[in-house]
Design a protein that fits this description.
- Keywords: Isomerase, Magnesium, Metal-binding.
- It is a single chain.
- The chain is built from 13 helices and 12 strands.
- By secondary structure, the chain is of the alpha/beta class.
- The protein has 2 domains: 3-119 and 364-371, Enolase-like, N-terminal domain (Enolase-like, domain 1); 125-352, Enolase-like C-terminal domain (TIM Barrel).
- Strand 2 (30-40) and strand 3 form a beta hairpin.
- Helix 1 packs across helix 2 (85-96) and helix 2 runs antiparallel to helix 3.
- The chain starts with a strand and ends with a helix.
- The mean pLDDT is 93.
Length: 374
């Protein structure tokens, strides 16, 4: 089976539920994404998705991703055998250096085509579901917001079966953020609460604030990215001085990053996102290194639409190193662009990953036409 055509499609989807973080106080009005449609000479089509995330480390604008796809990646895979994915990924990674985002969508599309040809669900293609059942527990993400709204959100989420909550912090009003954490604890007494700083604090600030939030929560499950990835020794310093596990997100893109963080004593947990690792190959390698160093894994997302969420779900459910409820489906992104969106509904805070071939996604052509911007 050879690659016959790769079509990158720029899209823009209105946001239904803005996620307010320390990086984006007002949230986003639209999500600018790129869909990858990979056609083969056997009639099999694979899909991928790219969430450029320009404000992230190594992130790119949508137009920059399109340029790299059209100038570097697409020509490199033209007429190539799909079965050569490992060699292809190695070659493409060397061409892109430190820019994994565009590679992610293309690599996933290659795997999707291969799994569809083999008539295997992606989680079987990647090694099989951990524990035998392709099910994922999901957490609920709470934006930086007013405590009254947070209380209402927490009650609704708890009624829907959520027990794990991730609370965004690191904004301008720490008193309100403390109140949000206390509100969730009071509203959902058995909640497992973690907070995500998105690198907004200095090491000294992080130590002080984490201790207070840990008291407010009656014990935090973990703290995500308390300081900037550029503060090289800051993570280890914080980890040594607080009683809460530290999760690295913006500081962790690859297997080598995992090894570096573990060697320096900087993280107890790493957030593996396919967009950061350049796809399944890099994410599986990072998980293996994490296990070797005694570091746990968590799987998050980049606010992807249906295709990207599906890819992350298949990775998470097939990776034994993943030890925490996933953050893949952490907000309502609006139109998923999937015709079979109902198969991906979360029930009782659990996603049952479909067993149809490949990613288990069917593209909604009418929705795509509404959203494409090319």
């Amino acid at each position: 089976m050879r690659v016959e055509r790769v079509t990158p499609i720029p899209i823009s989807v209105p946001v239904e539920q803005a996620l307010k973080t320390s990086k984006s106080a007002d949230g986003d009005d639209e999500y600018h994404r790129i869909l990858i449609v990979l056609e083969t000479d056997t009639g099999v089509t694979g899909y991928g998705e790219i969430a450029p995330m320009a404000h992230w480390p190594r992130g790119l604008t949508q137009s920059a991703c399109l340029d790299l796809l059209e100038d570097v990646l697409v020509p490199a895979v033209d007429e190539t055998r799909v079965h050569r994915i490992p060699r292809l990924v190695e070659d493409l990674s060397s061409r892109l250096a430190d820019e994994p985002f565009p590679l992610y969508g293309l690599e996933v599309a290659l795997h999707d085509a291969l799994a569809r040809e083999r008539e295997l669900p992606m989680y079987e293609h990647l090694g099989g579901p951990v524990g035998g059942d392709p099910e994922l527990e999901c957490h609920y993400t709470v934006s930086i917001d007013e405590p009254s709204r947070v209380a209402e959100e927490a009650r609704t989420a708890a009624a829907d079966g959520y027990e794990a909550f991730k609370v965004k912090v690191g904004g301008d009003d720490f008193a309100a953020e403390r109140e949000n954490v206390r509100t969730i604890r009071e509203t959902v007494p058995d909640a497992r609460i973690r907070v995500d700083v998105n690198g907004a604090w200095s090491p000294d600030e992080a130590i002080r604030k984490i201790r207070r939030l840990d008291d407010d929560a009656g014990g935090l499950a973990f703290v995500e990215q308390p300081v900037s990835r550029d503060v090289v020794d800051g993570h280890a310093r914080v980890r040594d001085r607080v009683p809460v596990p530290i999760l690295a997100d913006e500081a962790c893109f690859s297997a080598s990053d995992v090894a570096r963080l573990a060697t320096r004593g900087s993280a107890d947990i790493v957030n593996l996102k396919l967009a950061k690792t350049g796809g399944f190959t890099g994410a599986k390698a990072a998980a293996t290194v994490a296990a070797a160093h005694g570091v746990s894994c968590f799987v998050g997302g980049m606010l992807e639409l249906g295709i990207g969420q599906a890819a992350s779900a298949h990775f998470a459910v097939s990776t034994p190193e993943v030890a925490y409820p996933t953050g893949i489906f952490n907000v309502d992104v609006g139109d998923s662009l999937l015709a079979n969106d109902d198969e991906w509904r979360i029930a009782d805070a659990t996603c049952t990953v479909p067993s149809s071939p490949g990613l288990g996604v069917e593209l909604d052509s009418e929705a795509l036409e509404r959203c494409r911007t090319d």
